[in-house]
Amino acid sequence: MIIFPEINPTILKIGFLQIRWYSMMYIISFIIGYFSIKKMYKARNIQLKKDDFENLFFYIMLGVMVGGRVGYVLFYNLSECLHNPLEFFAVWHGGMSFHGGMLGVVLFGFIFSKKHGYDFYKLADPPAVIAPIALAFGRLGNFINAELYGRSTDLPWGMVFPTDPERIPRHPSQLYELFLEGILLFAILFFLYNKKVKEGIVFWSFISFYGLFRFLVEFVREPDVQLGHLIGFMTMGQILSSLMVIVGIVGIISCILKKQAKPEV
Q1: Structure letter (DSSP) for residue 155
Q2: How far is the C-alpha of 145 from the C-alpha of 163, rounded, in Å?
Q3: What is the pLDDT of residues 10-41, one digit of tens each?
């Protein structure tokens, strides 16, 4: 058994103002994403009109924040928000959904590409490569907050989290996700991107591989208290992730079968 390291989730507190590690992870992720995606666009000679990159990145951030909150309410907390609608705006209570954030980014990115006349896949592939880095930072923030921990275990690396009322050894599932959805997923997508596969394959590979890794981790992750298991052994996270795997595979196949556009003469 491993005792959870003493990490204060608050970096700095000045009066009522608090700077927390979880918020800092979002900020770090956005900074890394901005410069990394911009560099990848330049390396692939993806030309954007003046100020369009900044506008696109704003759309991405908006998709993460709005989609993440809306997704959490719809997928995990709908009954409470219907009972108390103001709870939707109570972001200080926590509650962000990856699946909602992903849908938000895809929707806002698609709207941006159509509005400004860009090919969606050309814009989407580089951010898909960088997204696992942001996910890794997010899971590190979950670990520091001692939240979203795993189910009980007797394995040597079982960890007692200070926020667990039962105070029993549990899987550090946040670290499993950091490795699978962050480090390993980044390595897979980076490899595919550098192999210069057809446009869109990297994007759909992100969708399908994330879904697969999240589905597997959910077996050792503690189900949400308010939902538990919904369909047999499956949690809400597994239901949403299995849909991602299916949609991602269909997307990959469609990209492979899609004929390359002939260059204009």
Answers
A1: S
A2: 9
A3: 888 887 788 888 889 999 999 999 999 999 99
Instruction: Give whole-number Cα distances, 87 to 92, 102, 193, 240, in Å.
Output: 10, 22, 41, 23
Of 164, 11, 114, 137, nearest to 64 by C-alpha is 137
Taking a C-beta distance cutoff of 8 angstroms, is the pair 122, 46 a contact? Answer: yes
SS3 of residue 150 by DSSP: strand
Which of 237, 245, 244 is closest to 75 using CA atoms? 237
Beta strands in the chain (DSSP E): 2-3, 10-14, 17-20, 159-160
Sign, CA dihedral 8-13-18-21, equals negative
65-96 per-position pLDDT tens digit: 999 888 888 877 767 777 776 666 655 555 77
Q: Could you tell me the two tokens for 265?
A: 């003469």
Phi/psi of residue 234, each to 5°? -85, 135
Do 236 and 244 contact (CB within 8 A), yes or no?
no
Alpha-carbon distances, residue 220 vs 35, 165, 261 (angstroms): 35, 18, 45
β-strands 2-3, 10-14 pairing: unpaired
For CA atoms 144, 146, 148, 152, the dihedral sign is: positive
Separation CA 108–CA 153 (nearest Å): 40
Coil vs helix vs strand at 86: helix
Tokens of 218: 């959910």
Q: Taking Cα atoms as reference points, which of 135, 116, 118, 108 lies closest to residue 207?
A: 135
Q: At which residue do the structure tokens 């050894």 appear? A: 169
